[in-house]
Design a protein that fits this description.
Layout (H helix, E strand, L loop, with lengths): L3 E9 L4 E3 H5 L6 H8 L3 E3 L7 H16 L8 E5 L10 H9 L6 E4 L5 H14 L6 E8 L11 H4 L4 E10 L5 E9 L7 E2 L13 H5 L6 E2 L1 H22 L9 E4 L4 H11 L10 H4 L6 H11 L8 E8 L3 E8 L1
Parallel strand pairs: 4-5, 4-6, 11-12
Antiparallel strand pairs: 1-7, 2-3, 6-7, 8-13, 9-10, 12-13
The structure holds coenzyme A.
The site of coenzyme A has 21 residues, from helix 2, helix 6 and helix 8.
């Protein structure tokens, strides 16, 4: 069994920049409130007509180029998103169509902010068991189209944003690659961060009443999410390190899901990591859910903050609640 290795990374975000002042013009909020509570200074939101699969296509092509591969050399796609372009089918096949790789399997992962970690674990298992060699793993999200941009929605609208990140995984022949995973979920908290409608339990799946009540918008109990996130992510990072007999001091880099700068700062303190061991870009992109880790990872790779042989931990927490980590020898 060979370990899955990262062959290339890439990301894409919409070119429309939305600043905190832009949001203050739409709702009762301020640059000062958003910066101090979340760390976010600006984010990217799509323009009308842009799609999640379209962003994923751009990110995937950059990851393929970095890997030195053509789309036709892929064996499978694993696509994580909580915001597919349509209720069905999932976005994997739309990406497949844009990449022109019809015929290969495509799997959609619906695990929200932890989607990319779960997607990596699925791709890793396929590669380890020898079923597929080259797997494209995508985390992509269009959150802006599901935000209530009135004051009613201000606790989520200022946080969530759009973007896509992609990695190409393939079998390695040495000690480099994905070393360990730690995955968890607890449905007790499903309604603490969720989108109620449309839902197939409703007839029809979405009603005028639900729309008037805003039940099609992302709804979050921010305090509860915060409380769990700052405990679960460090625990999970320690679990993948312990599984391989290592400690936080051995990490070259921690890339945590970009949920909120205050959350990442608390994780850093709990794990006693230096500033140079932690990467944050939430200031520029907001919380892009399943896309945040692969976007941050690609920035780190291209900036030379991750080099061959470095130990890197990836960790996420979010809606479900679902959380987990991956440990990589780059
Ligand atoms: N601008 C201005 N005021 C806002 C606001 C905004 N965008 N959003 C909420 N407020 C107000 C609230 O209405 C509340 O007002 P009140 O005291 O008059 O009722 C006040 O600010 C405090 O709200 P509260 O929700 O208690 O703030 P908080 O300190 O918990 O911060 C979050 C809110 C959302 C920033 C914080 O809970 C958080 O970061 N949670 C985790 C969110 C997260 O990371 N989610 C993604 C996980 S994947």
């Amino acid at each position: 069994m060979s370990r899955a290795r990262f062959l290339g990374t890439g990301f894409a975000v919409p070119d429309r920049v939305v600043t905190n002042d832009d949001l203050s013009a739409l709702m009762d909020t301020s640059d000062e409130w958003i910066r101090t509570r979340t760390g976010i200074q600006e984010r990217r939101w799509v323009r009308e007509g842009e799609t999640g699969a379209g962003l994923a296509d751009q990110a995937a092509r950059r990851a393929l180029e970095a890997a030195g591969l053509e789309p036709g050399e892929l064996d499978a796609i694993v696509y994580a998103t909580s915001t597919p372009d349509h209720f069905a089918p999932g976005n994997g096949v739309y990406l497949q169509r844009l990449l022109g790789v019809g015929g290969i399997p495509s799997i959609d992962i619906r695990n929200q902010c932890s989607g990319f970690i779960y997607a990596l674990s699925v791709a890793d298992a396929f590669i380890r068991c020898g079923q597929f060699r080259r797997v494209l793993v995508v985390g992509a999200e269009l959150q802006s189209t599901g935000m209530d941009v009135s004051t009613r929605g201000r606790n989520t609208a200022v946080i969530f944003a759009d973007g896509a990140g992609a990695v190409v995984l393939g079998p390695g022949n040495d000690e480099r690659g994905l070393l360990a995973f730690d995955l968890h979920g607890d449905g007790t908290y499903a309604e603490k961060l969720w989108v109620d409608a449309p839902g197939s339990m409703y007839h029809p799946r979405v009603s005028h009443e639900q729309i008037e009540a805003g039940r099609h918008f992302l709804d979050m109990d921010g305090k509860e999410v915060f409380r769990h996130a700052v405990a679960r992510m460090p625990e999970s990072v320690l679990a993948v390190l312990a599984a391989t007999g290592q400690t936080p001091a051995d990490l070259r880099l921690l890339v945590a899901h970009q949920a909120n700068l205050r959350i990442t700062e608390m994780i850093q303190r709990t794990l006693q990591l230096r500033d140079d061991q932690v990467y944050n870009n939430i200031m520029r992109y907001g919380n892009t859910t399943a896309a945040s880790i692969p976007i941050a990872l690609d920035e780190c790779v291209r900036a030379g903050r991750v080099r061959a042989g470095d130990l890197v931990a990836l960790t996420a927490f979010g809606s479900g609640f679902l959380w987990g980590s991956a440990l990589v020898r780059w």
